[in-house]
């Protein structure tokens, strides 16, 4: 006895491939549609950074906390900005715009000056080893404007016209501090 499709094997193959294609489309189609709607295939526009010293300190603290969580200590005084900068990158901002988070806003127009310093008393330490971490400054506005500046907030804290220094504590609170 001869098969029904013996005379027309090409039609059988064509119909089989069409059925397979449709079945695959019904399974994969909704997933592709969801991915498209979520914007996965859309080009992301790059935005400019608009922040103040407070938002810079918050961003630096988040990056320092990420470093602390992975390395179980804050970075050492030497090279701390590089460690922070790696953890500040975002997909919708150009690298030079992201770098502004590491520069005091009044220094954005100058080259090579940063204006923030790491407290040497916190450098390379685990947060629980810092005495009174909730009031100890981790990063603060500084007179030292070089990259990777570090020092004692009482000695190198920037106090414009006898005012207060803005800084972030080892526990993440933004505080105003008056250098002695």
Give the topology, please.
Blueprint: H1 9-37, H2 53-71, H3 80-86, H4 95-98, E1 116-119, E2 137-141, E3 150-151, H5 153-156, E4 165-169, E5 174-177
Keywords: Membrane, Transmembrane, Transmembrane helix
Transmembrane segments: 12-33
Tell me what the structure shows.
Keywords: Membrane, Transmembrane, Transmembrane helix. The chain crosses the membrane at residues 12-33. The chain is of the alpha+beta class and 180 residues long. The chain has two domains: 1-38; 53-177, no CATH class. The chain has helices at residues 9-37, 53-71, 80-86, 95-98, 153-156, and strands at 116-119, 137-141, 150-151, 165-169, 174-177. The chain has a five-stranded mixed β-sheet with strand order 3-1-2-4-5. Strand 4 (165-169) and strand 5 (174-177) form a beta hairpin. Helix 2 packs across helix 3 (80-86). The radius of gyration is 28 Å and the shape is elongated.
From the structure above, extract its key features.
180 residues; alpha+beta; 5-stranded mixed sheet; 5 helices; 5 strands; elongated; transmembrane helix; membrane
- Let me know the average pLDDT: 85
Question: Proportion of β residues?
Answer: 5-15%
Uncertain segments: none
Number of domains: 2
The largest beta-sheet arranges its strands as 3-1-2-4-5
Helical amount among residues, as a percent range? 25-40%
Rounded radius of gyration (Å): 28 Å
Query: What is the approximate shape?
Result: elongated
Order of helices and strands: HHHHEEEHEE
Structural class: alpha+beta
Total count of helical runs of at least 4 residues:
5
Question: What's the number of extended β-strand segments?
Answer: 5
Separation, N- and C-terminal Cα atoms: 105 Å
Largest sheet: 5 strands, mixed
């Amino acid at each position: 006895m001869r098969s029904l499709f013996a005379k027309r094997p090409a039609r059988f193959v064509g119909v089989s491939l069409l059925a397979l294609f449709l079945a695959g489309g019904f399974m994969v189609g909704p997933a592709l549609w969801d991915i498209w709607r979520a914007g996965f295939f859309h080009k992301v526009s790059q935005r400019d950074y608009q922040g103040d010293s407070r938002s810079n300190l918050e961003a630096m603290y988040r990056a320092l906390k990420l470093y602390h969580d992975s390395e179980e200590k804050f970075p050492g005084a030497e090279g701390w900005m590089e460690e922070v900068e790696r953890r500040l990158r975002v997909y919708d901002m150009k690298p030079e715009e992201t770098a502004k988070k590491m520069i005091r806003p009044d220094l954005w127009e100058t080259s090579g000056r940063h204006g923030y310093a790491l407290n040497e008393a916190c450098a390379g330490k685990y947060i629980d080893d810092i005495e009174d971490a909730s009031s100890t400054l981790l990063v603060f506005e500084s007179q030292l404007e070089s990259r990777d500046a570090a020092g004692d907030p009482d000695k190198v804290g920037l106090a414009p016209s006898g005012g207060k220094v803005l800084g972030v504590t080892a526990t993440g609170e933004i505080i105003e501090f008056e250098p002695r």
